[in-house]
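User: Quick sanity check before I run a bigger batch. Here is a single chain. Can you write out its predicted 3D structure?
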Amino acid sequence: MLEKEELKRREFYKGNQIKLLQDQWDKAKEDHQKQISENSEQFKERIKQIENQVQKKKEKEIDDIQEKVKQLENQLDESKLKSEEYQKQIKQLKEMKEEEQKEDLKNAMNLEIKFDTLKRKEKLNKEKLDDKKDEESKIKTKEQTNKQDKNKAILDGEVELPENIVLQKKLDNMKELQIQYVSEVEQMQSINQQKEKDKEIALKQEIDVLEKKYKEKEKEL
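Assistant: Done. Predicted structure follows.
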């Protein structure tokens, strides 16, 4: 009997303890929620203040940007260099570079063609000179059949015909002209290559400057 009463008393005490803990827990939750709500209101108020500050800052920045845009538009109107014209100039510069490259290539090809033509002409002239030399040699041989000593000297190469001397001189002159022409062609090609490099460097620099200006204008806009 005493054990049952003790058990009931313990269960009652235990129940009271649980209820007390539950009440404490509920109150703690309520206080926590209340604190959260208060913090939330404070947070919302702070956010509102920040939003107002940000809005004012944005409005000021927008006003500043609009003023800058207006100034830039005035500058662009005065200089007539709007963004489309920048792009147009860049495109024109690129097209000019391509045309110059084509022209240089065309000139180089023409020089090669002229050089090949000169070589062919030289070959033909040499062949003609050789043919003429052989023909004249035969004629001279026939005409001088009675001059055995002179014919022997000519055949041995001890005496050189005046015609052969003239032909040889012409041939030497043509060889000298060929060497001079080749030297001039190589020099011209070297100059053209250097000019092309200089033009390409200058064009790239000018394009970089224009693109940089264009990007800066876009950023400011």
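The chain has a mean pLDDT of 71.

User: Great, the batch can go ahead then.
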